[in-house]
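Sorry to interrupt, but I need a hand with the structure work. Please put the record directly below this note.
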Amino acid sequence: MADTDNADIKTMSFEQALKELETIVDRLEKGDVELEASIVIYERGEALRAHCDGLLRKAEARVEKISLSQNGEPTGSEPLDVKD
């Protein structure tokens, strides 16, 4: 499947991509899809999974750890350590 066939995925929100991915998984698990169609939707599912993974990594990078003083008061924040 060409990348241009999945161009719309880049504009999807996490929730939209996840919902479509769940639909694809459901269809494949039921086994009522012909072989060629299975390959096409599997490839789209893989593109959706990669998109969701990328969005999650971006969200994790934006999360901050809140620093607390000894008495429990917030003193500031620092970036969350995200391991690649």
In short: The first helix runs from residue 14 to 30. The chain is about 55% helix and 15% strand. The two ends are 28 Å apart (CA to CA). The mean pLDDT is 86.
